[in-house]
Amino acid sequence: MEGRIKVKVYYEDTDSLGVVYYANYLKYYERGRTEYINALGRPIAEWNADGYNFAVFKMSATWYKPARLGDEIDVVTTVEKGSTFRMRMIQKLFIGDELLNEAVIQLVCLDKNLELREFPDALCDL
After folding, report:
1. What pLDDT is recorded for position 83?
2. By the 8 A CB rule, do 35 and 86 touch?
3. Above 90 in pLDDT, residue 90?
4. Taking 70 as the threshold, does the pLDDT of residue 126 lie above it?
5. Which residues have CB under 8 Å from 77's CB, separation 6+?
6. What residue ranges define each of the domains in the chain, with the CATH number in brackets?
7. DSSP letter at 84?
8. pLDDT tens per residue, range 31-87
9. How many angstroms separate the CA atoms of 74 and 3, rounded?
């Protein structure tokens, strides 16, 4: 399954050079991951309420081209099969067919005490 959302770049997202500040790409990725999980049929807030909290364990990102004020970016999220304790998401940002940025994010699942726990079966079978 592939998740895709659109994000518009606002003035608050940009830096003194008029391009998206590098840390704001992480916010776009977070939105993409949240919507990806929501699209599976259960809102992420319900998972959290049941003691399944998803946290970034490791991330690598590569920036190719900047996004600018007013751009509409596609955030594309896919999942690669991981283990019961890690989920690997591949996320890419595009304007049209042009790749701006890509990241590999590894998530872990934590309980309400922030202890490592297995991902729920519904998410392990992706």
Report:
1. 85
2. no
3. yes
4. no
5. 2, 3, 4, 29, 32, 33, 35, 36, 89, 90, 91
6. 2-124 (3.10.129.10)
7. S
8. 999 999 999 889 999 999 999 999 999 999 999 999 999 999 999 999 987 788 999
9. 10
* Catalytic residue list: 15
Give residue-wise pLDDT tens across range 9-29.
999 999 999 999 999 999 999
Whether the predicted pLDDT of 104 surpasses 70: yes
> 113, exposed or middle or buried, with CB in 10 Å at 0-12, 13-18, 19+?
exposed
Distance CA 79, CA 89 (A): 4
Burial class (CB in 10 A: 0-12, 13-18, 19+), 121: exposed
State how beta strands 72-80 and 53-63 pair: unpaired
The token pair at 101 is 């940025």
Phi, psi of 83 (to 5 degrees): -105, -175
